[in-house]
């Protein structure tokens, strides 16, 4: 041993080993703790969406339709019960024609709102749905033509089948309608599809839906659990927190993406998913065929209403992710859509600016979901009242 060198005694060697371990283990531990706190903050500390979501009535209330693919089972009367079955309240009803009931109103020319689950009113009681709220504001019948999973082509067919006396028909358009108009399936159900040749819709040729066998084997429900009591929320927050933490958990190969995700959550930006890929929001013109087909379907619906001496309009409903996320993805599709409407003489409205302002005050959508909350449906009904009344 050279002079001046000293052999490490066992205690000093242990200290050195502990020091080395801390040097390698402490940064990941601190980062993990940081990610844990960010996930906890994102789940509990950001009151960006409504939390009192009720049970989902999805395809279990639908029955096969030979023309539309599926419709709501007729004459449903489903109650919402408490967890201990001591309390219940009306939740969901349908009429003899297979539409969700809207507000009873005096006979006369009314309107119909066509759309998907946003119009049908997922998680909403009958009296909280958009058509019901709008009927209250206008004082006329407003039929609920919303059925979960529908796209614009099915809404056109539904309008053609509708025999009610209508002063107007409105479509609530959502981004995921565009690709579904080209498809023979949606949400694992078979749907009809118009023939499309070189970008032109052949309205004389339609492929009927295949038989949705699984819908016919379902029994009608008369009750679902549960009335909102906070148990669902606590369970959901816990599940969401674990999902978020696992998503953010650091791995060496994903470090840049992890930091970007942490920054987004820490700044209060959206963790909600967009309906379509990012290109759609930045370059909506890249979906030329989908927009071309959409406009042909809407123009056909306008012609139907003109022949009935009625009014026709379309509302592009923004997504929750657009309200809370990257400003660069906020309204590109809406602007592209409105330009097309102007060229074709369609009456189209975009409430994105109003939704952004209102979302800062009160939640317009349900927790971890893109569906309108009771306040969101009421807010949109007020928006429509102003537009319909000024037309």
Tell me about this structure.
Helix 1 (10-44) crosses helix 7 (231-248) and helix 4 (152-161) packs parallel to helix 10. The protein has a domain at 95-218 and 272-390: Rossmann fold (3-Layer(aba) Sandwich). With 391 residues, the protein is an alpha/beta fold. Helix content is 42%, strand content 17%. The N and C termini lie far apart (98 Å). Strand 8 and strand 9 form a beta hairpin. It has a five-stranded parallel beta sheet, sandwiched between helices.
Ends apart, CA distance between termini: 98 Å
What is the ordering of alpha helices and beta strands?
HEEEEEHHEHEHEEEEHEHHHHEHHEHH
Total helix count?
Answer: 14
Query: What top-tier CATH class of the domain at 95-218 and 272-390 fits best?
Result: Alpha Beta
The average pLDDT value, as a whole number, equals 85
**Largest sheet, described in full?**
5 strands, parallel
The secondary-structure class comes to: alpha/beta
Can you tell me the CATH topology of the domain at 95-218 and 272-390? Answer: Rossmann fold
Low-confidence stretches: 1-8, 265-270
- Give the overall silhouette: globular
Strand content: 15-25%
Across the major sheet, the strand order is 6-5-7-13-14
Task: Kindly provide the radius of gyration, computed on alpha-carbon positions and rounded to a whole number of angstroms.
Answer: 26 Å
User: CATH homologous superfamily of the domain at 95-218 and 272-390 - what is it?
Assistant: SGNH hydrolase
Helical proportion, percent range = 40-55%
Structural topology:
Layout: H1 10-44, E1 62-65, E2 69-72, E3 77-81, E4 88-93, E5 110-115, H2 117-120, H3 130-138, E6 142-146, H4 152-161, E7 166-173, H5 177-180, E8 185-186, E9 189-190, E10 193-197, E11 200-207, H6 213-216, E12 223-225, H7 231-248, H8 255-266, H9 278-282, H10 288-307, E13 311-316, H11 320-324, H12 332-344, E14 348-349, H13 352-359, H14 374-390
């Amino acid at each position: 041993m050279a002079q001046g060198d000293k052999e490490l005694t066992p205690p000093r060697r242990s200290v050195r080993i502990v020091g080395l371990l801390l040097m390698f283990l402490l940064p990941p531990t601190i980062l993990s703790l940081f990610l844990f706190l960010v996930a906890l903050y994102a789940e509990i500390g950001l009151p960006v969406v409504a939390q009192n979501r009720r049970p989902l009535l999805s395809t279990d209330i639908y029955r096969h339709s030979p023309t539309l693919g599926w419709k709501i089972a007729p004459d449903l009367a489903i109650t919402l019960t408490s967890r201990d079955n001591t309390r219940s309240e009306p939740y969901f009803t349908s009429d003899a024609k297979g539409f969700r009931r809207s507000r009873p109103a005096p006979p006369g020319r009314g309107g119909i709102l066509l759309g998907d689950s946003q119009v049908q009113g997922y998680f909403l009681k009958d009296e909280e749905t958009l058509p019901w709220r709008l009927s209250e504001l206008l004082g006329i019948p407003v039929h609920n033509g919303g059925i979960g999973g529908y796209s614009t082509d099915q809404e056109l067919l539904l309008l053609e089948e509708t025999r009610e006396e209508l002063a107007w028909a409105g479509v609530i358009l959502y981004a995921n309608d565009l690709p579904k108009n080209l498809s023979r399936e949606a949400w694992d159900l078979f749907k009809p599809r118009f023939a499309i040749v070189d970008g032109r819709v052949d309205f004389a040729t339609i492929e009927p839906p295949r038989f949705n066998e699984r819908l016919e084997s379902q029994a009608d429900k008369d009750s679902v659990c549960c009335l909102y009591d906070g148990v669902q929320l606590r369970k959901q927050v816990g599940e969401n927190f674990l999902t978020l933490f696992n998503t953010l958990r650091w791995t060496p190969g994903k470090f840049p993406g992890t930091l970007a995700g942490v920054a987004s959550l820490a700044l209060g930006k959206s963790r909600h998913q967009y309906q379509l890929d990012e290109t759609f929001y930045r370059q909506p013109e890249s979906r030329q065929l989908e927009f071309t087909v959409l406009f042909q379907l809407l123009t056909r619906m306008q012609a139907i209403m003109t022949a009935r001496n009625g009014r026709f309009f379309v509302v592009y409903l923004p997504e929750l992710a657009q309200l809370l996320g990257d400003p660069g993805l906020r309204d590109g599709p809406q602007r592209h859509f409105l330009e097309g409407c102007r060229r074709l003489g369609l009456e189209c409205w975009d409430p994105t600016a109003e939704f952004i302002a209102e979302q800062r005050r009160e939640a317009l959508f349900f927790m971890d979901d893109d569906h309108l909350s009771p306040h969101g449906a009421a807010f949109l009904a007020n928006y429509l009242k102003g537009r319909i009344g000024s037309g």
